[in-house]
Amino acid sequence: MTVGGGAAPSVLETLEFPAALERVAAHAAGPLGAARVRSRTPATDPDAVRGALAQVAELAALLLSDDAIRAEPVPDISPALELLAVAGGVLEGPALAQLTVALVAGRVVAGDLGRLARDAPRTAALRVEPPPKALETRLQQSLDPEGNVLDGASRDLARARQAVREARERLIRRLDAILGGLDAGERAPDAAVTLRGGRYVIPIRSTARARVGGIVHDESATRATVFVEPPEVIELGNELRAAEAAEQREVLRVLRELSELARPHREAIARAWEMCIAFDDLCARARYAIEVNGFAPAIGGGPLVIRNGRHPLLTSPPSEGSEVVPFDLALAPDEFTVLVSGPNTGGKTVLIKAVGLLCLMAQSGIIPPIGPHSTLPAFTTWFADIGDRQSIAQSLSTFSAHVAVLRDILARAGAGSLVLLDEIGSGTDPAEGAALASAVLRTLTRRRSMTLATSHLGALKKLATETVGVVNASLQFDAVSLTPTYRLLKGVPGRSYGLAIAQRLGVPADVLAEAERALPDTERALDALLAAVEQRARDLENRAQSLAAAEQRLAEERGALEARERHLTDGERDVAARARSLEREARDQARGYLLEARKTVEQALAQARAAVDEATAREARRLLEKAIEETAGEEAHEKAGERGKGKGWISLDELRKRDEPSGAPRGESAAAPRRAPRPARPPRGGERSPTSTTATTEVSLRGLRVDEAEAVLIKALDDAILADLPYLRIIHGKGTGALRQLVHDLLARDPRVERFGFAPREQGGHGVTIAEFTA
Question: Are 261 and 91 in contact (CB under 8 A)?
């Protein structure tokens, strides 16, 4: 943001805000975009800040899925725009070339923003209509990238340059001829036509000057060689000068024409140029947010809440060999002052500077390195008293300099101010310093100024228990290794560890013992209490880590069990599929056996019909029965034979009794199929075959599956034909029609069946098919 800044330049320098902006500017595509980032200052309007952060977050989310979005760098064309504002002003070639680059970039950026209108409407709001493409095309046809006017800019310019080339060639040819006509003693060594003072000359020895004549334009350092324009080429030189002057006049005319062509579009060019710079600035901020994994905070509407905060100068790029420890700082609505205590080198100053810098960046439209669910107030003014402000020139001691800053803060700070105070109350008597610091902090708290202060003074650690709105905090310190962990603990004051650090650094034990005895009882008791609190906090943290590790192990075990369950389920599914496959193979094998039996039946029937006597026929039938028993197979026999007994098969005598009405002669049927079947032919020799008494003229397939019904039907057909029956009545029912389709397909393929059709309505209709066999 560039408006409404409430932070003095000295405060920005103290918090290293320019260095943070430099990290962001490094992501810009061009120098003007980087300069725009560096010029950003915090805004105080909450709505403007929210809009800027939302725009950055929108583009950053889009860049995560489409990294091809790029800003276009543009040159600085502000001088050219100023000259175009002056009537009659003519731009030089290089300025027009830069204008061409800006026009091309504006058209590209406008196209990219137009494509982002649906996915990133806030970003697309930067788009402006670029100047007409005809202007861009005309400039590209007239100028090269360096701004030189091309021959194609105008026909007169092309002719003028042709005239210059021809005049130059004539002049050089004439000079070469003159030089070649001189004696070796009259020419300078390695003599060739050259330029001096804009005129073409030849180098000759000074002794030959009188013989050659002409105008001397230069001479060598030793004066042994002079550069002469012979009299016979002076007119040719003048012609070249005239041609070059004509060329320059035409170039100036073209530049004037191009300037006049661009002047009406000056405002459109300026808007397109500004669009390119703004988009470069926005892209740099979005890419920075991605780099630091930052999330846009909520602005206003609640107290200060920072989740997973990191110091911007330690986050991007990360410091080599070290890991940045994030911090969480969440204040209640009635908490305004945070007093951070603890040992030196613990990170207290870095913490308060990080909070100030995060707030400055957010209000400057930059997403800082903080986590989600963070809330930052919209501060109107910033104050910082950090570092040693001693000044010999101004006769200020360290304490006097700090007091001068505190005086300025107390005069201006109020609600909406962020105040950062490092080592408040130091530099003077501890008792007086603590009293002054306590009064300052109470005053700022009553004014509802957001204040973060650091201190070593033990008296200030009690302030939080005595004053509403003040809260203690500390940065965790490892009491064993005496090294900082940089983890922020809110609500717990920190120990200074002064004597412990002195012991580790080798201070004599007797000195330390005397110092220990000199400590006031209250200080010793407070230190012991803080040590107990720290130990309790460490124990709780270790327990939390143990619970987290156990939860992780349980999650891993749960995952392993789920994977095992999935493996077993897959195995069961594979076994079931294998079983189905084996069942299909078994059915196919049984079907093959039955087809082989059918072939054997047909061969036996042929042999039986060709038998010359009854003994041969009986032998053939015996062989037939034996072949059927051997080849039918257990599965087909069990599924078809067992299920057929007493259900699907009826004897010939039963069929005759069922079909004969009472009083009708034996062998006559009360109702016949569409075509009356022929009476059963008696066996040859006048005797009934032994197997004919077991064959039936009706088979029922109801209740069977298709594969089961096929085996039953094939056996029934074979038995009927073996018994030399004229027809077979097949009961398949109506149902879904699958059995009926099977029966008809099988009968249609069987050459022994002469015809088949549905039974009459009173004998079953479409639920029964009657097959008649070939005689």
Answer: no
If you average pLDDT over residues 559-585, what whole number do you get?
87
Q: Which of 688, 684, 750 is nearest to 716 (CA)?
A: 750
Residue 228 phi/psi, 5° resolution? -115, 140
Taken in order 639, 640, 645, 648, is the CA torsion positive or negative? positive
β-bridge pairing 298-299 and 375-376: parallel
User: Could you report the per-residue pLDDT of 15-52, keeping only the tens digit for each?
Assistant: 999 999 999 999 999 999 999 999 999 999 999 999 99
Helix axes 46-65, 348-363, angle to 10 degrees: 90
- Cis ω before 317 (30° cut-off from 0): yes
Q: What are the CA-CA distances from residue 637 to residues 604, 644, 731 (Å)?
A: 20, 10, 20
Q: What CA–CA distance (Å, rounded) separates 622 from 220?
A: 138
Per the DSSP assignment, residues forming a β-bridge with 228 are: 202, 216
Most confident of 182-191, 418-427, 470-479, 633-642: 418-427
Model confidence band, residue 523 (pLDDT cutoffs 50, 70, 90):
low
Q: ∠ CA(395), CA(396), CA(402), 5° rounding?
A: 170
Decide if pLDDT at 653 tops 60. Answer: no
Q: What pLDDT score does 425 carry?
A: 83
Give the pLDDT score at 535: 65
Q: What pairing do the DSSP bridges indicate for beta strands 417-421 and 450-455? A: parallel
CA atoms within 13 A on the CB side of 94: 3
pLDDT of residue 520: 67
Are 728 and 768 in contact, with CB atoms under 8 Å apart? Answer: no
Q: Bin 176: left if φ > 0, else alpha if -120 < ψ < 50, else beta.
A: alpha
pLDDT value, residue 693: 38
d(CA 79, CA 73): 17
234-262 and 155-180 helices cross at what angle (nearest 10)?
160
Nearest CA to 349 out of 301, 314, 393 is that of: 314
Output the DSSP codes for 7-59: S-HHHHHHTTHHHHHHHHHTT-SSHHHHHHHHT------HHHHHHHHHHHHHH
Give the C-alpha separation, 648 to 703, whole Å: 10
Pairing of strands 225-229, 215-219: antiparallel
What's the pLDDT score for residue 323? 75
Q: What is d(CA 486, CA 476) in angstroms, rounded to the nearest whole number?
A: 6
Coil, strand or helix: which one is 727? strand
Q: CA nearest 96: which of 111, 75, 113? A: 75
Q: What is the end-to-end Cα distance of the chain in Å, rounded?
A: 106
Q: Which residues contact 467 (CB under 8 A, 6 or more apart)?
A: 337, 441, 442, 445
CB 357 within 8 A of CB 17: yes
The residue that leads in pLDDT, 736 or 97, is: 97
Report the C-alpha gap between 277 and 2 in whole angstroms: 14
Contact of 156 with 250, CB cutoff 8 Å: yes
Q: Which of 402, 448, 452 is nearest to 426 (CA)?
A: 402
CA gap 607, 611 in Å, rounded:
6
Token pair belonging to 241: 């000068």
The tokens describing 256, both together, are 């004037």
Q: How many residues does the chain have?
A: 775
Residue whose structure tokens are 């982002």: 116
In sequence order, what are the residues at sequence separation of 6 or more whose Cβ sits closer than 8 angstroms to the Cβ of residue 371? 295, 307, 308, 309, 326
269 SS3 class: helix
The model's pLDDT over 424-450, given as tens digits with 9 standing for 90+, comes to 888 787 888 889 999 999 999 999 999
- What sign has the CA pseudo-torsion 286, 292, 298, 303? negative
DSSP 221: T
